[in-house]
Write a structure and sequence with these properties.
By secondary structure, the chain is of the alpha+beta class. 16% of the residues lie in helices and 17% in strands. The protein is built from two helices and two strands, in the order βααβ. It has a two-stranded antiparallel sheet. The longest helix has 9 residues.
């Protein structure tokens, strides 16, 4: 079984697994309109991914994290660089 972590602002904990935030705003790996729940392989990586999107006034917000267990029967795919569309960077954040 693989482990992952979801770290979010405490005020969003009731919707931690709906994908609504990513659906409304879009994200690094999804366009607006597509619900995605982002997790990280480690809690420290989840923190970095969250902190880069916070401004100074949000830095003191209470946070909560959820450990997530992903059963081995779930297939995890890999997307190779050559499979990505060539019209934009794979790391471009949707605005």
């Amino acid at each position: 079984m693989r482990k992952a972590y979801r770290l979010i602002k405490e005020k969003h904990k009731k919707n931690a697994f709906t994908g609504e935030g990513a659906r409304i705003s879009g994200g690094r790996w999804n366009h607006r309109g597509i619900a995605v729940v982002y997790t990280s392989e480690t809690l420290s990586l989840a923190a970095i991914e969250l902190f880069v999107h916070l401004d100074v006034t949000e830095a003191a917000f209470p946070l909560v994290y959820f450990p997530v267990e992903i059963p081995d029967v779930i297939k995890i795919g890999e997307i190779k660089h050559d499979d990505l569309p060539g019209d934009r960077s794979p790391f471009e954040i949707q605005s």
